[in-house]
């Protein structure tokens, strides 16, 4: 994909020098209509298989979890079935831990991290917690390696009433019907180089705004919720992940993705106001993980290990601290 002017960085601090770009769809300064969204959709193509790479793994976990088809996504290109894994011996007296992956379908380690946790770690904690695991909320995004759904909507900005994103609405409906006793929610994500090369320019073009990229953090970091930051909880997660992969250092402005850090490896967003997945419940402990799969020391395996460590770090904190009342 070609742009009017490439972005440049200085090697020492990855400081952005130029952001002037012309996205190949639409008119600068004019939000997209149906025609531009259709042009964008026609540029997308399937690059990998949701059934072969995700559903097949869910099928292998039927002996350990209840598997539920919690909805169908109906698009002009294809229909998709959405799956959840839940604790097979559900105990109403136990609090629930929610794990979500693939809200942005292109963020691969979030999906496979959720599945790996379900396969290798979840049983260790099932006497204390019920689990709801939604491994891949956006299967079309997974297949086409996209941040948006086919309607050019970002599911991770769409967790609110009357959501325009099927992915967000169906996930919220299932989770809230399954449990009103959710103690913790870990939402698994990645920050990739394609955020700057494709997704942020596309967002600016779609909305008719000027593009502003951010410095991509080199490593793992967390996004907490400003309404319930839970600093010690976030710290415990970071400490657990630090043992297996690199934590992203802040930039020269003491920020990550343009947001001031709250503590080492942690920034905060208002997840509810922004319609983020981590704001979908009233859980007192919530966090969004961010892994950098494009780092020179990163591998697909190390990214998955980091995601699993984050979930285990969250559970470690819960086990060591008194449970809040609901």
From TrEMBL:
GO biological process, one term: proteolysis
CDD domains named in the record: M14_REP34-like
Family annotation (InterPro entries): Peptidase_M14
An MF annotation (GO) of this entry: metallocarboxypeptidase activity
Superkingdom of this protein's organism: Bacteria
Domain Peptidase M14, chain residue ranges per copy: 46-326
Gene3D superfamilies (UniProt xref): Zn peptidases (3.40.630.10)
Pfam families cross-referenced by the UniProt entry: Peptidase_M14
SUPFAM superfamilies hit by this protein: Zn-dependent exopeptidases
Entry's family note: Belongs to the peptidase M14 family.
Official protein name in the record: Peptidase M14 domain-containing protein
Organism field: Pseudoalteromonas peptidolytica F12-50-A1
Lineage: Bacteria, Pseudomonadati, Pseudomonadota, Gammaproteobacteria, Alteromonadales
